[in-house]
C-alpha cells in the first residue's frame, strides 16, 4: 500500500551529551565558517587535536582548513604525498607550522596507521607523572587528547556483482578496512582521555539507498554505515565514555572523486567547503546521522528515498524497486506526494 510519507524537518538525535547545548538548524543552514567559532564547543575548539585521513584533497582537505580556522592542531594523512604536503602548507598558513603534522599514510596498511598515531603522540603527547600508591613506583603516562578523528579517505573503484574482484578487494581495503585500521589504533587511547572526543566516519548515501552502477562502492559504504552504528552504540554503552561517533553522509560534492580535475563544478553539487561546514554544524549539535544535502537534492527528498528503500523490505517489494520498471511510476508518485507542501526548491530528479 502506498502511504503518504511522514516528513519532519526535525532531525533525529543520538542522545549525545552535546545535544542540549547546541541546537540543530537542519532547514536553515547557510555555510558560514565565521559562525562556527562563536561558541566554545567542548570538542571543536582551540588547541585540541584533529586527525584527518584522506586530507590531500576534496572533503578531507576542506575539513583540515575549516578546523584550522577554528584553531585546532591538525594532523593530516593521505596516500598522495605531494598533494598532502601542499595541504600542509595551506593549513600551516592558518594555524602556524607548529600546529600542523603531515604524515603520508596509506590507511589500508595497519603499520602505516600505527606510525601515524606514533607521530601524533610524539608531537602533541602530554607526559603525565602519576603515583599509583604512596609506596609504588612512579608511572609516566603519555596522553594525546585527540578531539576529532575523521575517517575520510575513500576511493571509488568500480565493480559489479560478478566482475572486478581485485577492485572489490582494493575498495574494501581502503573504504572499510582503512577506517577499521584507524579505529582500532586510535580508539583505545581515546577511551582513556579526560576530554571529550568525536569520531567522524565518512559514509555515503550510496551505502544506504544502493543505487545501481557501482556495487563495490555501495557495499563498502553500507559496511561503513553498519560499522559506525555499532561504534556509536558501543561507545554509548561504555561507562564514562567521553567519545561519540558520527556517520557523515555527504551530498554530491565537487571533488576529485566526482571529477573535479576535469570539469567545471556542476550546478547541483556543493563545494567541499560547504559540505564540511554543514557537517561541522551537525556534529557540533551532536547528530549521529549527518545527512548532507546539495543543490539538487534536499533533505526531504533524501528522507523519502531512504524510507522507500527500507519499504522494499518491509513491504515485500523487489530489491531496488526504485529502479524497477514496474515500480517507477509508483515511486515517482510517492515522491510527488511526499514533496507536496515541502515548499519551493524541489528537485528536478527522482
Ligand atoms: N564527493 C562526493 O560527492 C562524495 C559523496 C559521498 C561520499 N564521499 C566520500 O567522501 C570521502 C572523501 O572523498 P572526496 O569526495 O573528497 O574525494 P577525493 O578523491 O578528493 O579525496 C579522497 C582522498 O582520499 C585519499 N586516499 C585514497 N586512498 C587512500 C588510502 N589508501 N590512504 C589514505 N588516503 C587515501 C585520496 O588520495 C584523496 O586525497 C570519501 O570517503 C568518499 O567516498 C564523497
Automatic annotation (TrEMBL):
Gene3D superfamilies: NAD(P)-binding Rossmann-like Domain. The keyword Chaperone does not apply. The keyword Oxidoreductase applies. It holds the Pfam family adh_short. Residues 8-20 have a biased composition (Polar residues). InterPro entries: NAD(P)-bd_dom_sf (IPR036291), Sc_DH/Rdtase_CS (IPR020904), SDR_fam (IPR002347). Keywords: NADP, Oxidoreductase. Belongs to the short-chain dehydrogenases/reductases (SDR) family. This is NAD(P)-binding protein. It comes from Lentinula boryana.
